[in-house]
Design goal:
CATH architecture: Orthogonal Bundle
Order of helices and strands: HHHHHHHHHHH
Number of strands: 0
Oligomer: single chain
Structural class: mainly alpha
CATH superfamily: MetI-like
Number of helices: 11
Strand content: under 5%
Length: 222
């Protein structure tokens, strides 16, 4: 059981870290770009919210399969497939949780407005330095919300990880899949303990998110 929990936590942690790195520039561009087609990009990034996990998992499985044109590029490096591997789970989880990173960050960047960066530019700060010293601290609640939501969403995902990972013990089996397997085996007591743990975790996540939003509203009013 501990191995399943560790696999789940490791998957959620790596997915969160990866998305905070990848989603930040995308969210920044969406918040500041004036391109007419930026909302098309935003819609593509938000697709996992409404797309059934099995549909997303199915196409990701095809993408990560040995015969995929994408995987063919990795064949010279000795990588035949990423399907049914932990690395494949990280890729699938990052795509599945992308909207939960992009949207809070985009909202945070839009809320701070252009003035802080304009002031930094007036003082001669390079754009990258200004981002890390001005924009990032001002958007810290967005980063925190994104991290919480991505981590929690990854912990609770089922359809995508089942399609891509197959629930291989010690390799791609996570808590949500273990609960499903325990119910299939009629081991309801064990399933209840895991499910109750996820329920408590979900409550803490929702409460933390609400408290962050409430504090942000108070700061804005003051």
């Amino acid at each position: 059981m501990d191995g399943v929990v560790w696999t789940t936590v490791k998957l959620a942690g790596l997915t969160t870290l990866l998305l905070l790195i990848l989603a930040t520039p995308l969210a920044w561009w969406l918040a500041h770009s004036r391109r007419w087609w930026k909302e098309i990009i935003a819609a593509v990034a938000a697709l996992p919210i409404v797309l059934p996990p099995t549909v997303l998992g199915f196409y990701l499985l095809l993408l990560l399969a040995p015969q995929s044109p994408v995987m063919a590029l990795l064949h010279p490096f000795g990588v035949r497939t990423l399907a049914f591997t932990f690395e494949g789970l990280v890729i699938g989880s990052a795509i599945y949780s992308l909207p939960f990173a992009v949207q809070p960050l985009r909202n945070a960047f839009e809320a701070m407005g252009p003035r802080p960066m304009e002031a930094a530019a007036t003082l001669g700060a390079p754009p990258l330095d200004a981002f890390f010293t001005v924009a990032a601290p001002l958007a810290r609640r967005g980063f925190l919300t994104a991290a919480i939501l991505v981590f929690a969403h990854t912990v609770g995902e089922f359809g995508v990880v089942l399609m891509i990972g197959g629930g291989i013990p010690g390799k791609t089996e996570v808590v949500s899949i273990r609960i499903y397997q325990l119910v299939e085996a009629l081991r309801f007591d064990e399933a209840h303990r895991l499910a109750a743990g996820l329920l408590a975790f979900a409550f803490v996540v929702v409460l933390a998110t609400l408290l962050i939003d409430r504090r942000a509203a108070r700061t804005t009013l003051s």
